[in-house]
User: Fold these one by one.
Assistant:
Number 1:
Amino acid sequence: MKCGRFITLEGGEGVGKSTQVRALADALRARGLEVVTTREPGGSDGAEAIRRLLLEGGEERWSAPAEALLFAAARTDHVDKLVRPAIQSGKWVLSDRFIDSSLAYQGGAGGLGIEAVRAINAFGIEGWFPDRTLLLLHPDGAERARARDGDESDRIGGRPASYHDAVEQAFRDIAAAEPDRVRLIDASGSPEDVTERLLGTLEDLL
Ligand SMILES: Nc1ncnc2c1ncn2[C@@H]1O[C@H](COP(=O)(O)OP(=O)(O)OP(=O)(O)O)[C@@H](O)[C@H]1O
Ligand SMILES: Cc1cn([C@H]2C[C@H](O)[C@@H](COP(=O)(O)O)O2)c(=O)[nH]c1=O
């Protein structure tokens, strides 16, 4: 069976993940690879429907465990319908967020605990963990997201700065615990500079 690669881009709000998923996909295609880009929550019809449930409405719409289970359900559908078939047909899949966002947001910042959230996700994704996770870090991510979204932030993006600080700390803890899979990326400088740094961390997989 042909086997592609599964690469995820992670980080807090506004650090440049979506910009870099597009740029990295172009760079990998230029090297002759077949690349599929996707995002979470979302990436399949069912997961996009769950995305709307999660990101629209007020804070009280979901309890913390219900929120974590909805993210895990969306991810399970995304893996079933898009990620696994693409990788099995030899493509590289680049995902804008995946399981580490749940570990950092719901597990770390949301107080459910990283291991509890890992367990509910492991049940759904059945071993389809990323080959590599690129954790983008930028000190002005929140300001960039505000400049981009104005007053239109979603149910989770609009949480207080203390929540987003805890998200970043949790991402750093996850990276420290899994240094081979999760690589820290300085996301400052031009988009082209950041793409070069990302490519540099993938050389051994190419
Ligand atoms: N290297 C860069 N230099 C300057 N501006 C950038 C750079 N990368 C991205 N931006 C801008 O910063 C903003 C946030 O970028 P982007 O949407 O890619 O971030 P994100 O991490 O996907 O955000 P979110 O998780 O909140 O959706 C956008 O307006 C984008 O154009
Ligand atoms: C996958 C995932 C996402 N989130 C949060 C992170 C963001 O605030 C939104 C998604 O918005 P984006 O503009 O598409 O980045 O959802 C989360 O809390 N948990 C997750 O697993």
Number 2:
Amino acid sequence: MARVEFNPKTNLIEQAAYKYSLQDVPEPNLYREIFPYTEIPKIAFNHRHVPMFVPDEIWITDTTFRDGQQARSPYTVEQIVRLYDYLHELDNDSGVIRQTEFFLYSKKDREAVIKCMERGYRYPEVTSWIRARKEDFQLVKEMGIKETGILVSCSDYHIFKKLNMTRKQAMEMYLSIVEAALENGIIPRCHFEDITRADFYGFVVPFANELMKLARQANMPVKIRACDTLGLGVSYPGVALPRSVQGIIYGLRHYAEVPSEWLEWHGHNDFYKAVVNSGTAWLYGASAVNCSLLGIGERTGNTPLEAMVIEYAQLRGTTKNMRLEVITEIADYFEKELDYEIPPRTPFVGRAFNATRAGIHADGILKDEEIYNIFDTKKILNRPIVIAVDAHSGLAGIAAWINTYFRLEGDQKIDKRDPRVAKIKEWVDKEYENGRTTVIGDDELEMVVREVMPELFRMHESRVK
Ligand SMILES: CC(C)C(=O)C(=O)O
């Protein structure tokens, strides 16, 4: 039962939050009715609605060098430093991209951290990720890092099956590690792994309560990152725990009194929900959402950082002083320098995200591009709209297609008088002479351009399917 108390500060009779205590169950609660494993997981509703609560400040934290790097071959030190520079350039001292986290395991990891710290940027702040071993705190301290991530897996899948412990044993172990961080003057950021399959009232809230006690005793923040490890979080109104994103964030704030500034959501995209879940976490009281560049992370990836930059702009009505065109530079860097193929239809960064193939759309765009473009992609992302070619495009249309599609600038640009453009036009004309009525698709034009201008493909090889 919830306690009803008089609050002299507000002069109101208030219902105090019920204090949940640890349920040290003998058998794991695997929520088999929701996660039968041999069937698709179920989305259960209890029709409980929690209030929206948007923190005064919301921001993004980055995991490109941690979760991102776990899912691909490691970056070199130079690549890490370049990507860190890009994050800083994108943030442009707005503080929206507030922190990024690094492994400290190897000499190479540490060299990258030192180089990034030497940059002296305020944002994104360098934080670390360590094994939950007390010796590692010394390392964090020596490197001058103020905050570190610590893994505190919280579902019974992890506690019973992976750690082979009881809930009480796991909680005691986690608390002793958090205490060690605080004793070393380091802010612990507790990664509640697999929270969307965890017993919320039997483990998550009681554990968070203990963490908040430690924070009060040490007079230091103890942050909580709610990790939707398998992307099972759901943001539909009335969804039941443990899958409810808003339920988790509300519950941590309300029942464990975790302040918004210490609360973060870490999403995965297994069910295509990473972006909406992160936005929901913001709206229901987590100040931070954890993302990675291009969403690169374990399996289907994390919440894409660039998507949350755009979401921030939509929710807040401002980009502060972020430089959104850097998103395009980052995408180019991944493709050209890191040999990473961005799926063409990926929002904001894929080469086809603002391309239109339908003749009728191209016609509309020729009249006024606003008709078929989501926003001024040239101004905001330095990505001019891409137009498909048809019977009426002519030399100029074909040259424009090549220049926008391959994003050629300055003297790289192909002129309409270039004889290679005439060759492509011959092919286009033949198509229509032979009775074609549809617009020519990007893939078809790519094939012809590949024959006539192979050098373009050497530059953009990773863009070609
Ligand atoms: C390893 C943990 C912290 C994680 O990244 C996740 O749960 O997705």
